[in-house]
């Protein structure tokens, strides 16, 4: 009998980690943990032995880590942002995606993703109409609602939730803070990046108005969203944009770059769209306007639902299992 194995190494305090935690806990299809060690993002992980699955079995990964020695593997490719990073760093991602990832996806005949923006990018990259690209969407934790406690702050603050990778574009927010002296910046980042955020803030002369938070659960994060005058999401590229969804679900508007399609789709007018991703003065003006307006926004419809996402993933895996 065909069995489903899951590469359960993705859970964590980040976008893919949250996706893995929410979806795997809701799968309708019985599954077994592959029991692999290490990280699925290690350069040579694609070539490791995969003990357990038989020739007819299926492996599911809630991330993009390809396992070439698995019989069949269904991936969730959240986005292709790594293929748009600067040279020469892009070269290693091109080799990985055009080699192990493309081979695994074509062998499975299906790949999952989280937004229509990412689905379009994956179809263009694959150039293979025989592969079905399934947009399973993304969900939003029940903790993110307008009702509930909010962070108390003596000064208005904007909230940044993300990391220090170049495409997240945190620097423009720090430069904006330098010309918007009445606004504080609260950041929620991985613990390993806290020191880097503090270094960047000091370099921009705003260290005293930038606070770094790590390791928060959903309830605490929701408090921070509710207390903010706006969430800032200056990303240049996103496959989905979960902080934008969590923010508007909490009633807090989002300041974002209009050219980032995935985020603009989620925000849908619930905030301020900045026309220039790198213009600190334009970002500062939006942050100041947010502080003056004390605006709240309506939560989106129930289209962003973890139960629905897990159901689509389950149905797709059931089809592959046969």
From TrEMBL:
<dbReference type="GO" id="GO:0016757">
    <property type="term" value="F:glycosyltransferase activity"/>
</dbReference>
<protein>
    <submittedName>
        <fullName>Glycosyltransferase</fullName>
        <ecNumber>2.4.-.-</ecNumber>
    </submittedName>
</protein>
<feature type="domain" description="Glycosyl transferase family 1">
    <location>
        <begin position="153"/>
        <end position="293"/>
    </location>
</feature>
<keyword id="KW-0328">Glycosyltransferase</keyword>
<keyword id="KW-0808">Transferase</keyword>
<dbReference type="Pfam" id="PF00534">
    <property type="entry name" value="Glycos_transf_1"/>
</dbReference>
<dbReference type="InterPro" id="IPR001296">
    <property type="entry name" value="Glyco_trans_1"/>
</dbReference>
